[in-house]
Design brief:
single chain, 191 residues, mainly beta, six-stranded antiparallel beta sheet, 2 helices, 43% strand, DUF4082 domain-containing protein
């Protein structure tokens, strides 16, 4: 009987050592699914394309203000413009009025073009603004219907903003019934 207890004890010990082996190469980090707020609003039919402007005589800083429901990071900026060219894209903290990132992105005539950036940590509840400086743009829902605020996944788009001219200026007023341009972010929420 004593021999059986020793054999069972050794068997249990051996099985526990085998099942508890540690191999760090097998550990997988699961990252949250990336979110593209404006792309999602368009694909979900929340906003609809109504017109296109190419080589408009006026240039604007066009974009949208948003907040997130979770902390996370912005890892890419993107544009969709109806002409092939290079455009300045800006990313702002609205609450502090700090310009966090500026970059040039080359468009692919009507296709969504994203460029990776060094991740920018963002905080839930803080207002941010992403914009493109352009005279080529799409017009969405110009019928006067209220579009914003609009929620998609972990992001609340608060409104559309524009500043007339080529200067890199954060708009001070926001519209809830239209959206011009097509600039976007790649947001990865924290788990």
């Amino acid at each position: 009987m004593k021999t059986q207890k020793i054999i069972v004890g050794l068997l249990i010990l051996g099985l526990s050592l085998i099942s508890c082996s540690k191999n760090d190469d097998d550990i997988k980090i699961i990252e949250s699914t990336p979110e593209y707020p404006m792309k999602s609003l368009i694909e979900d039919g929340v906003i609809e394309l109504t017109n296109t402007k190419i080589n408009s005589p006026n240039t604007f800083e066009l974009g949208y203000k948003f907040k997130t429901f979770k902390n996370g990071k912005i890892t890419a900026l993107g544009i969709r413009v109806p002409d092939n060219d290079t455009y300045r894209v800006s990313f702002w903290n609205v609450d502090t009025e700090e310009l966090l990132k500026t970059m040039e992105i080359t468009s692919s005539s009507g296709l969504l073009s994203f460029e990776d950036i060094e991740p920018i940590n963002i905080e839930s509840g803080t207002a941010y603004f992403v914009s493109i400086n352009t005279n080529d743009y799409y017009i969405f829902n110009d019928g006067g219907d209220v579009m914003f605020p609009a929620e998609t996944n972990n992001i609340l788009v608060l409104g559309y903003g524009a500043y007339f001219g080529q200067s890199q200026t954060l708009p001070e007023t926001y519209v809830k019934t239209a959206y011009l341009g097509m600039v976007d972010v790649k947001f990865i929420p924290n788990n």
